[in-house]
């Protein structure tokens, strides 16, 4: 009998009187603007992953990883890991000329150098194929490797990386020097 007591219009009014549910805040789709320099490593990373490289820095820093002598005759082609793992992979190298017999003897050194670069046992084996190797440009040494001036204090003397120390020294010298801001009159 409760239904008969309420008129038909009141139920519809109650449904209409309900407040709409509030949606949780969602961040705008675009996000903050990013510079092109921030996006380029991501684009390169996608291309290198397609060819089997997890880190593009293995290619770009190959000369630092294995040294000048081996970098002149070898070039990394790809790294293949077992399914679902990031360790125990196979490094595929392209080798120029008749250097394969010599490189078979130094394969443990190459594996140790690459694993030291990764920081863990990422590479277990090396596969070599003959091909054309384009020698990479030699590594540029920092331009200024002189002692830290006393006025900069002891904070920069503890930095072991000479490149980082040089950059920080230049920045400190630039901040301490006179400003070359043009005066507007």
Average pLDDT confidence is 75
Distance between the termini: 91 Å
Strand content: 5-15%
Task: Order the strands across the largest sheet as they lie in space.
Answer: 1-2-3
The structure class reads alpha+beta
Helix content: 40-55%
Coarse morphology: flat
Number of strands: 3
Structure description:
The chain has 185 residues and is an alpha+beta fold. It has nine helices and three strands. 41% of the residues lie in helices and 12% in strands. The relative contact order is 0.09. It has a three-stranded mixed β-sheet with strand order 1-2-3, with helices on one face. A hairpin with an 8-residue loop joins strand 1 (74-80) and strand 2 (89-95). The radius of gyration is 31 Å and the shape is flat. The longest helix is centred in the N-terminal third of the chain and has 15 residues, at 36-50.
Please tag this protein with its features.
single chain; 185 residues; alpha+beta; three-stranded mixed β-sheet; 9 helices
Produce a short descriptive summary.
It contains nine helices and three strands.
Mind sketching the topology for me?
Elements: H1 2-5, H2 8-17, H3 36-50, H4 57-60, H5 62-66, H6 68-71, E1 74-80, E2 89-95, H7 100-105, H8 107-118, E3 123-130, H9 162-176
Parallel strand pairs: 2-3
Antiparallel strand pairs: 1-2
């Amino acid at each position: 009998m409760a239904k008969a007591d309420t008129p038909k219009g009141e139920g519809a009014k109650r449904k209409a009187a309900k407040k709409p549910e509030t949606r949780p805040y969602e961040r705008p789709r675009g996000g903050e603007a990013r510079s092109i320099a921030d996006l380029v490593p991501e684009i390169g990373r996608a291309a290198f992953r397609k060819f089997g490289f997890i880190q593009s820095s293995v290619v770009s820093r190959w000369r630092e990883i294995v040294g000048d002598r081996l970098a002149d005759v070898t070039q990394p082609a790809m790294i293949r890991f077992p399914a679902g793992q990031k360790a125990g992979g196979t490094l595929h190298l392209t080798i120029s000329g008749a250097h394969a017999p010599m490189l078979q003897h130094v394969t443990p050194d190459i594996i140790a150098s690459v694993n030291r670069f990764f920081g863990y046992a990422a590479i277990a084996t090396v596969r070599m194929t003959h091909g054309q190797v384009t020698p990479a440009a030699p590594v540029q040494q920092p331009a200024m490797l002189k002692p830290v001036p006393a006025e900069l204090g002891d904070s920069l003397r503890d930095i072991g990386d000479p490149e980082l120390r040089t950059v920080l020294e230049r920045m400190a010298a630039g901040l301490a020097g006179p400003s070359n801001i043009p005066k507007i009159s």
